[in-house]
Specification:
single chain; alpha/beta; Protein-Tyrosine Phosphatase, Chain A
Length: about 180
């Protein structure tokens, strides 16, 4: 009679032990697995393209606003705005042309950042190149973060001086009145 209870007990124990493993296997990849993910400050992170399955993690980690600087691409981010809003977060999309980034794009980004200064913000694009450059400009020109500190964060991802249109954009923004709007 004891042997009859042993098999179900062993099966139940193995099932209970296996459940957390199965849950971990089905869990979305951590935010740290996103291409070029950076925690810039306690209230700000930047990264490359987030996966749809990672969107609920943003809210779980306290992010309230998602700013997408990538151009609209049906395959990469076509459902992103809907899924972010469905998760209860604010979604802002500023599609920045890689070849021709504009001062007006940066001005809009600065406005969004100022309007949400009291909220935790996640800024991204496809590879965290647009995002890190915009975050760098905001930190130095609006927040007053020392140039070396802000540039080091951006340079961990890339050096915009290697792309003339981006080096030019940064110089045009520095010379503009965007910071004072």
């Amino acid at each position: 009679m004891k042997k009859m209870y042993l098999i179900p007990a062993v099966f139940l124990s193995l099932t209970l032990l296996a459940h957390p493993v199965r849950a971990q296997q089905n869990a979305p990849p951590a935010l740290e697995t996103i291409r070029n993910f950076q925690v810039v400050s306690p209230q700000l992170a930047s990264a490359g393209q987030i996966g749809y399955e990672q969107i609920p993690l943003l809210g779980a980690q306290g992010y309230e606003v998602v700013v997408n600087l990538a151009v609209a691409d049906e395959a990469r981010n076509g459902q992103e705005g809907f899924l972010v809003a469905q998760s209860g977060l604010t979604y802002v999309h500023i599609p920045v042309d890689w070849e021709q980034p504009k001062v007006s794009d940066v001005a809009m980004f600065f406005d969004v950042m100022r309007a949400n200064a009291d909220r935790k913000i996640f800024v991204h694009c496809f590879a965290n190149m647009r995002a890190s450059a915009f975050v760098y400009m905001y930190r130095t020109l609006v927040e007053g973060v020392p140039e070396d500190e802000a540039r080091a964060t951006m340079n961990a991802v890339w050096d915009p001086n290697t792309m003339q249109q981006w080096a030019d954009l940064i110089e045009r923004v520095k010379a503009s009145e965007v910071r004072e709007r």
